[in-house]
Design goal:
CATH topology of one domain: Rossmann fold
Cofactor: NAD(+)
GO molecular function: dTDP-glucose 4,6-dehydratase activity
InterPro entries: dTDP_Gluc_deHydtase (IPR005888), NAD(P)-bd_dom (IPR016040), NAD(P)-bd_dom_sf (IPR036291)
Strand content: 15-25%
Distance between the termini: 28 Å
Helix content: 40-55%
Keywords: Lyase, NAD
Structural class: alpha/beta
Shape: globular
Largest sheet: 7 strands, parallel
CATH architecture of one domain: 3-Layer(aba) Sandwich
Catalytic activity: dTDP-alpha-D-glucose = dTDP-4-dehydro-6-deoxy-alpha-D-glucose + H2O
Number of helices: 12
CATH class of one domain: Alpha Beta
Order of helices and strands: EHEEHEHHHEHEEHEEHEEHEHHH
CATH superfamily of one domain: NAD(P)-binding Rossmann-like Domain
Strand order of the largest sheet: 3-2-1-4-5-6-10
């Protein structure tokens, strides 16, 4: 395998840190991690790789054009994997402007920095350069039927400020490929879960609330259906797309695990009852709350293209992945308690 330098934006986030760990632990590639370190960025998720000679961290904002230009000039990446994004739907409803700034403006700034750098390359290095944009299945809106699946040709119909901002960034990436010939790839994934997940998201929130004896809030009737993808499976898929995918193509990545939100919470309760038994059922903590505005009913990914063309299939079922996730949170109390009390944010800073 030819050793490449990967520039990962958002590499201190949940999915980004999984990609960084996978690259450092299981390949010979070099990684340059650039992250603004907002509330969702956590360098403690990278403790297992931070001493590697093949790993470099820089704190910078993708909206900072000068910083992005400097990064490209200094590190000369072969592959850009763009994961930096605001990604929490509820937060986007409360404050959409930040999502537009990071997800739309930031992507445009990064694309321009990458284009200038790519234009400076020659020969094989120019031909081999890739810009991989990581997106979400939420850009497609929701599915009306129980059998329909999102494919790479599904029309966009975003419902929230978050998904609209991600749809915008997807369009920008494809426009840079069409207009300037930039070698881009786009992936759209289903809901990720697994170790190092920020506790505001559904699965870690339910695990930690249940352990604390707190209510487990479920929106509406809990029948919203999502496809669940174990984050380490996703990381392997992303690297495969970045290194083997066809320029200009889109690949949907899913876990083949469609579950209603209520089913997810009930399964978590039953797992916790097995692993941390208590006299009363964890299910008694489930509380139904008012549904959020514009809540999509069903997402489901058709991942046959990436399976057929690149040979990727998820290694974890929902049952095996969820068990690993619960066991990880039980074994890593220090990590999530430092997130809960905010002490994780006193992190060292890197330099460009």
């Amino acid at each position: 395998m030819n050793t490449k330098t990967f520039l990962i934006t958002g590499g201190a986030g949940f999915i980004g840190s999984a990609v960084v760990r996978e690259l450092i632990q299981n390949t010979s590639h070099k990684v340059v991690n650039v992250d603004k370190l907002t509330y969702a960025g956590n360098l403690e998720s990278l403790a297992s790789v931070e001493t590697s000679e093949r790993y470099t961290f820089t704190q910078a904002d993708i909206c900072d054009a000068a910083a992005m230009q400097q990064l490209f000039e200094k590190h000369q990446p072969d592959v850009v994997m763009h994961l930096a994004a605001e990604s929490h739907v509820d937060r986007s409803i409360d404050g959409p402007a930040e999502f537009i700034q990071t997800n739309v403006v930031g992507t445009a700034v990064l694309l321009e920095a990458a284009r200038a750098y790519w234009n400076s390359l020659e020969g094989e290095r120019r031909d081999a350069f890739r810009f991989h944009h990581i997106s979400t299945d939420e850009v497609y809106g929701d599915l009306e039927g129980t059998e329909d699946l999102f494919t790479e040709e599904t029309s966009y119909a975003p419902s929230s400020p978050y998904s609209a901002s991600k749809a915008s960034s997807d369009h920008l990436v494809r426009a840079w490929q069409r207009t300037y010939g930039m070698p881009t790839l786009v992936t759209n994934c289903s809901n990720n879960y697994g170790p190092f997940h920020f506790p505001e998201k559904l699965i870690p929130l339910m695990i930690l609330n249940a352990l604390a004896g707190k209510a487990l809030p479920v929106y509406g009737d809990g029948q919203q259906i999502r496809d669940w993808l174990y984050v380490e499976d996703h990381a392997r898929a992303l690297i495969k797309v970045a290194t083997e995918g066809q320029v200009g193509e889109t690949y949907n990545i899913g876990g083949h695990n469609e579950k209603a939100n209520l089913t997810v919470v009930e399964t978590l309760c039953d797992l916790l009852q097995e692993l941390v038994p208590q006299e009363t059922s964890y299910r008694d903590l489930i509380t139904f709350v008012t549904d959020r505005p514009g809540h999509d009913v069903r997402y489901a990914i058709d991942a046959s293209k990436i399976e057929r063309e690149l040979g990727w299939i998820p290694e974890e079922t929902f049952e095996t992945g969820l068990r690993k996730t619960v066991q990880w949170y039980l074994a890593n109390e220090t990590w999530w308690k430092r997130v809960q009390d905010g002490s994780y944010q006193g992190q060292r800073l890197g330099n460009v």
